[in-house]
Amino acid sequence: MERLHKILAHCGVGSRRDCEELISQGRVDVNGQVVTELGTKVDPAADRIRVDGEKVKIEPHVYYLVHKPRGYLCTNEDTHGRPKVIDLIPQQRRVYTVGRLDEGSEGLIILTNDGALANLVTHPRYKVDKTYRLTIAGPVTPEQLDRVSRGVWLSDGKTAPAAIRGVQRNRGRTFVTVTIHEGKNRELRRVFAKVGLRVQALLRVGIGPLRLDDLRKGAYRLLHPRELDFVRKRTDGDAPVEKKKPARRPPLVRKHRRP
Length: 259
What we know:
Elements: E1 2-3, H1 4-10, H2 16-24, E2 28-30, E3 33-34, E4 41-42, E5 49-51, E6 54-55, E7 63-68, E8 96-97, E9 106-112, H3 115-122, E10 130-137, H4 142-150, E11 153-154, E12 157-158, E13 163-170, E14 173-180, H5 187-194, E15 199-207, E16 210-211, E17 220-222, H6 229-233
């Protein structure tokens, strides 16, 4: 079951706000009954939906697992003509990336037209793990890793604790595997910079139980429906999100720059 206005938006009827207006104006009916209540849930596979008397064509959901190469953008439009992740799959249906990997990062990403799944994977309250393999310039101390694991303060708040394992060192670089469930913009690069470390390369190797394995760069495969069960098991429908008081930042301590 999905919210009616989201289904209409997915089908290209208009933006979500436009679709909410159509519902409020009584221009949408489901199985012959006019619906005016916002938040109404329907089954897109079983219910007949019409707008102004015309049947809405609903495309079936599709799910792709893609190995994003460096240099590709997680967007559906780019005015500069740069390569996009959606260019790597057949353009039979309108899809979009679930979450983002910045242009300089690579690895596992899901492409779909299922907005509900996208929300379940990306919203922090569902705590779907994302696992990354980082290449760090130079040595890394246990104290630095401890700070990362406990969370650090960034401009948009404190990060949640991170699980760190598989620390290896080779030729002046350190390789670290990190698991988080948040999705702040460029989070891991910013977190490691906060503790004085520079991320040279970032590879996402897992989303929940999904693994990159031997999927080569630029390649994709379809997800099997049973692979999506991990998302559904972590949710409880559309229960309201608990409101939490914003965390208080510690007082700013100014540091003198070295000459």
